[in-house]
Amino acid sequence: MPSTLPPLPASLEATRDHHLAQWAAALEQSALAPRRDELSARFEQELPLVLAASDYVAEQLRRDPELAWRLVAGERLWRPLAEGELRELLQAALTEVANEDQLAQALRRFRQWQQVRIIWRDVLDLAPLQETTRDLSDMADACIDEAYHWLYGQCCASLGQPLSRDGVPQHMVVLGMGKLGAVELNLSSDIDLIFAYPEAGETGGGRRSLSNQEFFIRLGQKLIKALDAPTVDGFVFRVDMRLRPYGDSGALVFSFDALEQYYQSQGRDWERYAMIKARVVAGDQQAGAELLAMLRPFVYRRYLDFAAIDALRNLKQMIQREVQRKGLQDNVKLGSGGIREVEFIGQAFQLIHGGRDRSLQQRPILGVLQTLGANGYLPESAVQELAQAYCFLRDTEHALQAVDDRQTQMLPTEAQGQARIAWMLGFADWDAFRARLDAERACVAGHFAGVIADPDEDEADLQSPQADWVPVWDGTLDEPQGLEQLEAGGFADAPSAWRRLQGLQGSPRLKSMQRAGRERLDIFMPRLLAMAAEQENPDLALERVLPLVEAVARRSAYLVLLTENPGALRELLVLCAASPWIAEQIARYPVVLDELLNAGRLYRPPEPNELADELRQHLLRIPEDDLEQQMETLRYFKRAHVLRIAASEIAGTLPLMKVSDYLTWVAEAILQQVLLLAWREMVARHGRPARADGSRCELDFIVVGYGKVGGIELGHGSDLDLVFIHDGDPQRDTDGDKPIEGSKFFTRLGQRIIHMLNTQTVSGALYEVDMRLRPSGDSGLLVSSLASFSRYQRDEAWTWEHQALVRARALVGCQQLTARFDALRAQVLGRERDEQALAREVGNMRQKMRDNLGTSATRAGSTADAFTAAQLFDLKQDLGGIVDIEFMVQYAVLAWSCRYPELLRYTDNIRILDELQNAGLIAGEDVSCLQEAYKAYRAAAHRLALQNQPGKVSGDQFHDFRHGVIKLWQQVLPPQQPTTEPQG
Q1: What residues does the PII-uridylyltransferase/Glutamine-synthetase adenylyltransferase domain cover (predicted)?
Q2: For strand 872-874 and strand 809-813, is the pairing parallel, antiparallel, or unpaired?
Q3: What Cα–Cα distance (Å) separates residue 40 from each residue in 29, 35, 36, 71, 236?
Q4: 334, 397, 464, 470: which has the highest count of C-beta atoms within 10 A?
Q5: 203: which residues sit within 8 A by CB, 6+ positions away?
Q6: Are residues 809 and 882 in the same domain?
Q7: Number of domains observed in the structure of the chain
Q8: Could you tell me which of 576, 481, 470 has the C-alpha nearest to residue 530?
């Protein structure tokens, strides 16, 4: 006996005994009575419990006692069906079908058999909810598809075969909507269907030709009859076709073009909502996939679709009015806190965010809820509560329908029915069940009330401030009154704020707005002014946010986003007031406003593996040939994460070293995918290049990062210093239809990578790429083989190029080639050098840089004693600055790694300095001085970048750090006599 079922209530014992007696009598009257001992003991033990629960099961066994033997065959009552097993059983049941009447009978008897099996497993808790709904949906899929193909053959025989204009045979596509589409059918669901066919044409081979539409209309009518018409054996499924275009007044079947045109020109918001769950359940699966791809832009807008909020809010209000008007409180689907409200919560997020976040483009509601939690749209606690409530409500729905296979979601009112439902769900009595049900529904209703709620509802404290600012924006106040209001609101320079508002009002972009957009702006602006007045510096916040408002004026969905999400607007004002760089980035790329919706995610940096996986998942959902969308996804990924990094840096939740780590991980994740996209494109076009041994390359290519990306020290706006290396045979041809030499293949691969990174789109460029550190610089080959790179580094490279190699590392690409590059780097850097000559060459190069790039004070030869506030300090290039520290580290690696190979382990300055201390080459206090100075300089440079200011500070800042760096420089690299340009 299942542990979830309590003892059978006394009120149900008579029902059980009555059904058992009827079963026994029916068995005695059949020829099966002598075979009863063939039924397993487990069947006999479980039968009374199922009969107590379900009058439908009792009736089916009474009418067809042989059903019991079919149920226990193959242990199918006590195990999940294997994939495809249910369809195989139906196909076997249809083998002797010769006409439509026999088809109808076979389908209905198959449905009865499977319905009893599914109810049995559900009542005894032998199957989880997802298995029950999947089995019911699989049964519907099999019945629809097998009936369709049988009827298609009959129709072709009598009417001819439908053909495209090119003479290609056509099949119909059957879309399942609602619960069927989502693989969530309940025990007594209707099935909502839409019929379509690929293209216009005529039948061929019949007595007379018909249009394809007429053929498929006749076929569709026969299919509906086969499934829906009541007979002595009941029905298979009730079929509802009202979700098709124009509902009952529309054609039964539409061509793909007609469907696309309808949804593009006339599709309504509720149809978008319904189409989320559309799935091909029968007919031509390949053509169906093409149809769904055609309709996807109708369902999921390309970017954030906050314009759908009004429609969703209207739908929500309709749901609420329907509950109140129809007295649906005892309906577990349609009542307050019911199944429909859980589904609405998930689908609202899908409609708004699904165009950009393709992980939301899924059908089952439990999967949607999990994604909402995983991606930060809803708190995990809310997701768990909604999922638990949904499962309980669906279990209740199944219990209600298992009784007599009736389509109901209404709770019973009579004591006998209440006792039965409570017992089936594992409760001792009705009161205990009802308490749990009410608690779950109250929880759902609370979450439902909060979804796309009007932000002004239940926020009386916000009404007054916003109302106060309406006259400032709508022109009710004249200038003196407006200035008075602004001053009272905390604006220090009220005239400037007034002029900015008037300038926005007169902007050509605002004047060309459509009425709906202008209405949204007029709702948004008072909220913006009220919230700006709450900021520490209202003037600065307003000054920096207004360019964004103007930029998105004609894409007013962004205004709706900020209006509907006061928390996002507050985050926007805080970030823009803190950083003009952030304000400019958001104004240029407003699509990243979505990141402000989740403050927890905004300030939580992911790990590198999470970053790479996130980007990979986004790209997996895009067709391989849709390069434009892939490029946009890469750019959004970068913009979004750079915003999150800057926000965390401003909030102080991300220290400098982590900021650089995070920026570098973002770059590596993007480079990984860019390399894969470029490689896939090149191989598709030309085939794979060859190695020296004649075997074919599998991405024998690496992207080597130098400078900041190599040293894991990227900053905001940093470009990428890259070198491309391959390990193919430059002479051998590729193996594709359009073969080219290996050297050309790898050169074009490198060009494609640079193009993807550099190309300006509406979302900007990914990165500026600098390739000048490759062998021979701008005059050298774009891509080098490892062998030629090795020769150059050993025989031709200048000392400064070996300095650059200190911070070089393979970022992405072939692991084996990466290992060989690392070994080569170690050999080149670790060879023994004349330390005096090396010191002279490094010192001369550093002096040249100071002379060309430093401030006037440094170029004039100022000493540490002469630093004054009047002299700017270039954090990077001036005496005692960042580059001095970098050159000392590079000198140390080149001079001493021959004896201390551990100096080659890392490419970032901080950890190399740690190794120098561990090896006893530089004293601990000196290493600390260099590390603290380096971090302080870089932190200041980051702050200045976020303020859109150059990396220079007052000359009297960082005195102690500069003194320490200069002192160590003089110890490690004392002044040298100039020499001719040295070679490595």
Answers
A1: 314-451, 873-948
A2: unpaired
A3: 21, 11, 9, 11, 29
A4: 397
A5: 159, 160, 161, 162, 163, 209, 210, 211, 212, 215
A6: no
A7: 5
A8: 470
Phi, psi of 191 (to 5 degrees): -115, 125
Two tokens, residue 833: 């050098």
Question: Phi/psi of residue 954, each to 5°?
Answer: -60, 140
Q: Are the C-beta atoms of residues 650 and 578 closer than 8 Å to each other?
A: yes
First and final C-alpha spacing in the chain: 84
Question: What's the CATH code of the domain at 546?
Answer: 1.20.120.1510
Residue 307 has a pLDDT of 62
**In a domain? residue 426:** yes
CATH code of the domain covering residue 681: 3.30.460.10
116 and 251 share a domain? yes
Tokens 């091909």 identify what position? 280
DSSP-assigned letter for residue 555: S
Decide if 351 is inside a domain: no
Closest CA to 878 of 844, 840, 852: 852
* Listed residue (631, 639, 766) closest to 709, CA to CA: 766
E strand or H helix at 282: strand 279-283
Q: Nearest 10 degrees: CA dihedral of 229, 235, 236, 238?
A: 60
Instruction: Tell me if 331 sits within 8 A of 407, measured CB to CB.
Output: no
Joined together, the tokens standing for residue 832 give 């023994």
Domain interval for residue 466: 460-597
Do 769 and 803 sit in the same domain of this protein?
yes
Q: What is the spatial distance between Cα 88 and Cα 102, in angstroms, rounded to a whole number?
A: 18
Cβ atoms 755, 851 nearer than 8 A: no
Structure token pair of residue 209: 């030709």
From 416, 450, 484, give the residue that closes a domain: 450
Residues 6 or more apart whose Cβ sits within 8 Å of residue 35: 69
Residue 346: inside a domain, yes or no? no
Q: Is 732 part of a structural domain of the chain?
A: yes
Whether 667 and 548 share a structural domain:
no
The one-character DSSP state at 36 is G
Give the pLDDT confidence score for residue 974 in this predicted structure: 72
Q: Are residues 417 and 388 in the same domain?
A: yes
Residue among 591, 333, 319 at smallest CA distance from 452: 319
Q: Are 170 and 162 in contact (CB under 8 A)?
A: yes
What the block records as the tokens of 266 is: 């006339």
Question: Of 78, 172, 183, nearest to 120 (Cα)?
Answer: 78
Same domain, yes or no: 850 and 817: no
Residues 839, 764 share a domain = no
CA distance 118 to 132: 7
Distance of CA 85 to the CA centre of its chain: 34
Tell me if 337 sits within 8 A of 451, measured CB to CB. no
The pair of three-digit structure tokens given for residue 900, joined into one six-digit string: 């201390």
Could you state, in chain order, the average pLDDT of each consecutive group of 10 residues for the chain (984 residues)?
Answer: 73 93 91 85 94 95 93 92 95 95 96 97 95 97 97 95 92 96 94 96 88 96 96 93 89 94 85 93 96 91 67 74 73 92 92 84 95 91 96 97 92 94 94 96 91 58 65 84 91 94 89 82 91 92 92 82 85 90 87 76 75 84 80 90 86 83 94 95 93 83 96 90 94 90 94 93 87 90 94 94 96 95 97 93 91 68 56 89 95 96 95 95 94 93 87 87 92 63 38
What's the CATH code of the domain at 958?
1.20.120.330
Structure tokens at 838: 């090396």
The last residue of a domain, from among 829, 863, 885: 829
Q: Can you state the percent helix, strand and coil of the chain, rounding each to 5?
A: 65, 5, 30
845 and 783 within one domain: no
Distance CA 129, CA 122 (A): 8
CB 163 within 8 A of CB 108: no
Query: Could you tell me which of 468, 597, 590 has the C-alpha nearest to residue 529?
Result: 468
Q: What is the pTM of this model?
A: 0.66
- Per-residue confidence (pLDDT) for residue 459, from 0 to 100: 45
